[in-house]
Amino acid sequence: MIIFAKRQVPAKAGISQLAKQKMKYKRILLKLSGEALMGNRQYGIDPERLAEYAKDIKEITELGVEVAIVIGGGNIFRGVAGAMNGMDRVQGDHMGMLATVINGLALQNALEDADVKTRLQTAIKINEVAEPFIRRKAMSHLRKGRVVIFGGGTGNPYFTTDSAAVLRAIEIEADVILKGTRVDGIYNVDPEKDSNAIKFEHITFDDVLRKGLKVMDTTAFTLSQENKLPIIVFDMNKKGNLMKVVCGENIGTKVNL
């Protein structure tokens, strides 16, 4: 009788069993600003920065983390800025929504280049380029290991992509909102303007409001507080930070009750 040895399936490269055991969050909503995609450019999209983000996101999907993403559009167009220059606010916000779809398509391309399966869903119907947002379908994609990118904001003017991020996070039952920025947390004053700025490792929703700190716009922040959805603000541009956050390391600033 011939006995065949069972083939050993190698673990995915770069992902340790220890890291998998340390995974703290199963489903996350990653909020990225449009400006984050500019890299060192003055406007538009930096392909190198996109590729870096795609690698970081791929690493956490290999852990088994379910990832949804909301991106701003400020690197292309801001509705508020347009309104300040005399443009109709509603028209400007619609242009901003389209900018977020452009960024979503760019990130989708970068992720798929890194061999990550994705779906782009939008709050406004653009059937030729993306699926319409359907909550059940989005959650099904997440359970199947696909990264879901939400574009088009909430689909309504006068609402920011911060509000869209919190709304989508609640709808998909995310464990946490990870707000990736270019600073490493929340400070009492702007650390880029004041070298004596003090960083908070942890802060409550009430303390943020009492101190007048800017984490998200008021609508988004209040919605997160009412639904007891924690927010972690961290430096997305530092390699490995995203992995550290989902593994529960003390990175950035955590906001909760």
Brief overview:
It is built from nine helices and eleven strands.
Which structural class do the helices and strands define?
Answer: alpha/beta
Number of continuous helical runs: 9
Show unreliable segments.
1-13
| Oligomer type | single chain
Please describe what this structure looks like.
With 257 residues, the protein is an alpha/beta fold. The protein has nine helices and eleven strands. It has helices spanning 17-22, 47-63, 79-84, 89-113, 135-143, 161-171, 205-211, 218-226, 241-246, and strands spanning 27-32, 66-71, 118-122, 131-132, 147-151, 176-181, 186-187, 199-200, 202-204, 231-235, 253-256. The protein is globular.
Note the topology.
Elements: H1 17-22, E1 27-32, H2 47-63, E2 66-71, H3 79-84, H4 89-113, E3 118-122, E4 131-132, H5 135-143, E5 147-151, H6 161-171, E6 176-181, E7 186-187, E8 199-200, E9 202-204, H7 205-211, H8 218-226, E10 231-235, H9 241-246, E11 253-256
Parallel strand pairs: 1-2, 1-6, 2-5, 3-4, 3-5, 6-10, 9-11
Antiparallel strand pairs: 7-8, 10-11
Helix pairs in contact: 2-4, 6-8
